[in-house]
Each structure stands twice: as structure tokens, then as C-alpha cells.
Specification:
It is found in: Cell membrane. It holds the Pfam family OEP. One of its GO terms (molecular function) is efflux transmembrane transporter activity. By secondary structure, the protein is α+β, with helices and mostly antiparallel strands. Helix content is 63%, strand content 11%. It folds into two domains: 370 residues, Outer membrane efflux proteins (OEP) (Up-down Bundle), CATH 1.20.1600; 67 residues, Outer membrane efflux proteins (OEP). The longest helix has 67 residues.
Length: 454
């Protein structure tokens, strides 16, 4: 009976050394505010979500980045480091075996040189009775899980960044193509005005206005060439490759209005807590902090150390293998910290504060995740309507530019009307390209906000 009571008391004491883990309560909405029209099927988004865009060039870029990017390699190394750390933690609480070999020589006038050889094996074992080992293992396992989710997060962020940079590159290439086309048309128009001026069919003001349009178009081209080259260099870095010289021949024609992926299944907000990498990473960081607080608390309780030593000594190496009797001793000790100027208590309090910080970080990560999804949904819905209106605007401005040019040639309109029409067409074309590219990026942001594939 006494043994049973001792067991119960010991178990209660061990339990008292481990802080209870209470996950913070986060208000999770039943549905997304702006998710109307998006499917709730959670099994439809594959892990290679970028293939939804149907662009083989993008598929290849993301694959190369995932294979070569240094940030992914660093995150993978941290996972392996965490796994090795678990082995270190386990070994700290196992018996430690060592051996000592000594050779000693002593000289006196009476005995001359006396040599002594000794072999002394030893064994030591520190027994953690108050949850240190259990909590240390929990902390190490939580660190492994956290690093694994961090790796997923790095891969997700990298794929999203590659896709965003790629669509930005297509936008700049398309802008450059439009600027070059506009410059060509304006040069042709200026040449026509110059010819009309020579024959007295136009005045000098119209000619200078036409030349001004050419200069404006020529001034726009370098900024888009610069943007294209700098964006390609950024893409090379993401791919983990040495930056290479980039030309400016891309036309950005892969950036099409009707190439957006079908509506992405957003699922329910409650499901986001289990599939978004940064949320899961924060959760396991919280678990690790709770376990480390248990280790800090256990350090305030007694510890038991068992040591055993043996040995044999001889005046010759050969004598070490003889049947000389071995000497040995064993010792068990119980150590209870009494007074350390509050160090152990403050260490425990500091560990508890780290847990509080991790819990608040988790809460903030969840709130940010919900906001990311909502903002992406709002952006997709609003940009869709805006792009549709801009498509109509470009068509309308193109007609106006054609008609004003015809009216001017017929002498029924001033060249200033032609300038205004061409400027409006140019600006609407650039605006449409920006909207289309941003809509692609909005879909990328939604996939990233949802945690990628699952």
C-alpha cells in the first residue's frame, strides 16, 4: 500500500511540474464575408496550384525555383537540424559511459623511475524525475513540426513570389510592346503631318504637336525596358541562378484577359487553421514554448545522479591484462536547489512569458490569415468588373482615335483632337494591361492566403 501511495504522490508531483497547455481561443467566422460565388470544395486545389493558370512557362519556372532556391535549402536544413536536436535531447537523459587511461612516471633517488598505468571506466546517469525529459522531448518534437511547416511556408511563399514576378514581367513586356507600337504609329503620323506641311495642307503647330507625341513615346520606352530587365534579374535570383543578360524582345502576349483560372475553392475559415503553414508553425512554436516552460519548472525540483567507477592499475601495460582485482565504487546523490538568488524561478517566469508571446503571435497570425483571404477575394471581385469596363474603354478609345485621325485628314478636325484621342487610347491600353496583370496576381495571393494546395 505504501508503495502505491508513493507512486500516486510521485505522479502528482510530476504532473505539477508540467504547465497545462491551453490553446488560445480565436473567433472563427462561419464563412468568408466576400466568398460569395466561390466553391467550398476543399479537395479541389492541388499542391501544385500554380498549374491552374495553364502556363507551361510558369510551371517550369516554379519547378526550377523549388529545386534551386537557397531559402528552400536553408529551411530544409533547419528541419534536419531539429531532428538531430531531438536525438541530442534523448541522449542527455541516458547513461553516459566513459573510460580514462593514464600513464604516470615518477623518479626518486631511492626507487629511480617508477611507472604506473591505469584504466578507469566510468558510468554516470542523471535521472529526471519531474518531467524534464518528457518536456524536453515534447519541445524537440514541436520544434521539428514547426520547422517542417516553416519549410512548407517557404515553398509556398517562393512559388507565389515566382508567379507574381512572372506576371509582373509579362505586364512590363506588354507595356513595352504597346509603347513601341505607339511610338511607331506616332512616327508614321508625324511623317504624314510633315508631308502635309510641305504641301501646305497643315500648319507648323500640328507638325510640332506630332513631333512632341513622338518624343513622349520615345521617352516612355526606356523605362519599360529598364523594368523588364530588372524584373528578369529578380526572377533569376528567385530561381537560384546567376543573373543573366536579358533582352527586351518579349511581347507579353501570354498575359490574356480570359486566361484567369476558374474560381478557386476557398473552403471554410475553420479549415484554414489546419492547412496554412504560418498558422501551423505558430501553433507548434506555442507548443514548444509550453514544453520549455515545463523544463524550466522541473529544474527547480530535486534531481538524482547515479555514478559508478571502476579501475585497475599496474606498473606495466602487460599487467593491465592480468587477473589483478578491479576496484570499483558506486554513488547515488539527490540534489535539491535551495538558494540561487531567484535564478531558477525567474527562468521559469521568463519561459512562461515566452509561451505568452507565442500564444499572442498565434492569435495574430490567425487574424492576419483571415484578412489575407478576405482581401484577395475582394480584389478578385472588384478587379474583374474594372477590367471588363477597361476592355470596353480600349475599344471605344480605339474607335475615337481612328475617327479623329480621319476627320483631321479631311480637314474637319483640329490635330489637338487627334492628340487627345491617341493619348486616351495609350493610357487606357496601359491601364488594361495593369488590371489584367494585377488580377493574375490577385489569384496568386488567394492561393497563398489559403495555404496553397492541401
Amino acid at each position: 500500500m505504501k508503495t502505491g501511495y508513493l507512486t500516486v504522490i510521485f505522479a502528482l508531483a510530476c504532473a505539477a511540474c508540467t504547465p497545462r497547455f491551453y490553446p488560445p481561443k480565436v473567433d472563427v467566422p462561419d464563412d468568408y464575408l466576400y466568398g460569395e460565388g466561390f466553391p467550398r470544395d476543399t479537395a479541389a486545389l492541388a499542391s501544385d496550384w500554380w498549374r491552374l493558370f495553364g502556363d507551361t512557362v510558369l510551371d517550369n519556372l516554379v519547378q526550377r525555383a523549388l529545386e534551386n532556391n537557397r531559402d528552400v535549402a536553408v529551411a530544409a536544413s533547419r528541419v534536419e537540424e531539429a531532428r538531430q536536436n531531438l536525438g541530442v535531447v534523448r541522449a542527455q537523459f541516458l547513461p553516459q559511459v566513459g573510460i580514462g587511461v593514464t600513464a604516470e612516471g615518477e623518479y626518486t633517488p631511492q626507487t629511480k623511475i617508477v611507472q604506473t598505468y591505469a584504466v578507469e571506466p566510468s558510468l554516470s546517469w542523471e535521472i529526471a524525475l519531474f518531467g524534464q525529459l518528457r518536456n524536453a522531448k515534447r519541445a524537440a518534437r514541436a520544434q521539428i513540426a514547426s520547422s517542417e511547416w516553416a519549410l512548407r511556408g517557404v515553398r509556398l511563399s517562393l512559388a507565389a513570389e515566382v508567379a507574381t514576378t512572372y506576371f509582373t514581367l509579362l505586364e512590363y513586356e506588354r507595356d513595352l510592346a504597346i509603347a513601341r507600337r505607339s511610338c511607331t504609329l506616332r512616327r508614321e503620323s508625324a511623317a504624314l503631318i510633315d508631308s502635309m506641311f510641305r504641301y501646305g495642307m497643315s500648319d507648323g503647330v500640328a507638325l510640332e504637336q506630332a513631333r512632341s507625341l513622338v518624343y513622349t513615346a520615345e521617352a516612355d520606352i526606356p523605362q519599360y525596358e529598364r523594368a523588364v530587365k530588372q524584373t528578369r534579374l529578380s526572377l533569376d535570383i528567385l530561381l537560384g541562378e546567376t543573373p543573366q543578360a536579358a533582352d527586351s524582345t518579349g511581347s507579353g502576349l501570354r498575359l490574356l484577359v480570359d486566361r484567369h483560372p476558374a474560381d478557386i475553392p476557398v473552403g471554410l475559415p475553420s479549415e484554414l487553421l489546419k492547412r496554412r503553414p504560418d498558422i501551423m508553425e505558430a501553433r507548434y512554436d506555442m507548443l514548444q514554448a509550453a514544453a520549455e516552460a515545463g523544463v524550466a519548472r522541473g529544474a527547480r525540483f530535486p534531481s538524482i545522479a547515479l555514478t559508478a567507477k571502476g579501475g585497475i592499475a599496474s606498473n606495466s601495460i602487460k599487467g593491465l591484462t592480468a587477473a589483478n582485482p578491479w576496484a570499483w565504487d558506486a554513488l547515488g546523490s539527490l540534489t535539491q536547489p535551495l538558494f540561487a538568488f531567484g535564478k531558477l524561478r525567474r527562468s521559469e517566469l521568463a519561459a512562461m512569458e515566452r509561451y505568452t508571446q507565442a500564444a499572442k503571435t498565434y492569435e495574430q497570425t490567425v487574424l492576419t490569415a483571415f484578412a489575407d483571404v478576405e482581401k484577395a477575394l475582394v480584389a478578385i471581385a472588384t478587379y474583374r468588373g474594372q477590367a471588363e469596363r477597361y476592355c470596353e474603354l480600349v475599344v471605344s478609345n480605339d474607335r475615337i482615335a481612328t475617327m479623329t485621325q480621319a476627320l483631321y485628314r479631311s480637314g474637319l478636325s483640329d490635330y489637338l483632337d487627334v492628340i487627345d484621342a491617341q493619348r486616351s487610347l495609350y493610357q487606357s491600353q496601359m491601364g488594361l494591361v495593369n488590371l489584367v496583370a494585377q488580377q493574375y496576381i490577385n489569384y496568386v495571393n488567394l492561393c497563398k492566403a489559403l495555404g496553397g494546395g492541401w
